[in-house]
Specification:
By secondary structure, the chain is of the alpha/beta class. It contains 11 helices and 9 strands. The two termini are 27 Å apart.
């Protein structure tokens, strides 16, 4: 059994906010980080504070600061409707290279999944989807998990070094993720290479552009319908992974990202998709990436992720 506490660093106790008011308890007062509480937890929080993959992809440095910045906002929220037991595992130990960090992160994630926990992963760069996906494949098998990438980009780039745009190309080409079990959601065509779009089209990856999401009454309907067919056609016991790159949200609602855009999901649409992810009983990982606190305004982006985490913790799934 992997000793996940040797491969991670404990969260800073100062992040766990309290008002000292028994009539107004906050998340910082009920989430545990002492290893003794891990076994009883339903939901585990794990950060990966690195942005090497972002800088390799010519993005803006800063997402390494995101996990703790998100925690700072999350632990200020109230405990309203919280019935799950939540444990903060801290952050993956950062190695000397991105590849080393990914290897460590994958080992931690695999053990958390084997322990039957639901995992909230806080990036860092979106490249963390690679070790998260590897862990899903090794624990459940490539034919037993669905991957959903909610992002304005496709992230199937070819490059000499892995980076924050190569992760799903790696998972597909290495056989960890089956193309017909992969969903690209919320991408914006003006940000997508036609060569890479042809790659996912030819592999029969499910494609739901921002325009297609907007063509339905609710942001999650198209995705619900597609995944429902997969459950019915194969097995209701399929496990699901949802990766939410905050670049998918318009900059008015999420200014602190690696690649902001005036177009994108509205904050309410983003939360609707997160709630759908959390409602599925077999969702194992929900990941949030590409938050860049250096460019945030009034903590708008970190607060949005914190609220999304709160919705996960109150979900029935």
């Amino acid at each position: 059994m992997t000793n996940i506490f040797e491969l991670t660093t404990r969260p800073d106790a100062k992040l766990f906010f309290t008002r000292g008011d028994k009539n107004d308890p906050r998340m910082g007062e009920i989430v545990h980080s002492d290893p003794d509480h891990y076994a009883s937890a339903d939901i585990v929080i794990l950060g990966c504070p690195q942005d090497e993959g972002v800088t390799r992809n010519l993005g803006r440095k800063g997402p390494a600061e995101a996990p703790d910045a998100i925690r700072e906002q999350f632990y200020r929220l109230t405990t309203f409707n919280i019935r799950k037991r939540i444990f903060d595992l801290g952050n993956t130990a950062i190695g000397s290279t991105l590849e080393e960090t990914h290897d460590t992160h994958a080992e931690v994630v695999k053990q958390v999944l084997r322990d039957g926990k639901r995992l909230i992963v806080l990036g860092g760069g979106n490249d963390i989807s690679y070790p998260d996906g590897v862990a899903m494949a090794e624990v459940f098998g490539p034919e037993w998990w669905i991957g959903v990438n909610v992002d304005s980009h496709l992230d199937v780039r070819l490059a000499e070094q892995r980076n924050s745009g190569t992760q799903f190309r790696q998972l597909l080409d290495e056989g960890h993720l089956l193309p017909t079990y992969f969903y690209e959601v919320g991408f914006q065509t003006h940000f997508c290479s036609p060569v890479y779009y042809e790659y996912i089209r030819d592999k029969h990856v499910h494609r739901i552009s921002l325009e297609l999401l907007r063509s339905r009454a609710e942001a999650d309907i198209e995705l619900k319908d597609m995944i429902r067919e997969k459950f019915i056609g194969h097995s209701a016991s399929l496990n699901t992974f949802f990766g939410f790159d905050l670049d998918a949200v318009r900059s008015a609602d999420a200014p602190g990202t690696s690649a902001p855009s005036p177009l994108g999901l509205r904050a309410g649409e983003f939360i609707t998709l997160v709630k759908y992810a959390a409602s599925l009983a077999n969702t194992r990982i929900i990941e949030f990436t590409e938050v860049n606190p250096s460019f945030d305004v009034d903590h708008r982006t970190t607060r949005l992720v914190a609220i999304a985490m709160h919705r996960i913790c109150t979900a029935a799934g």
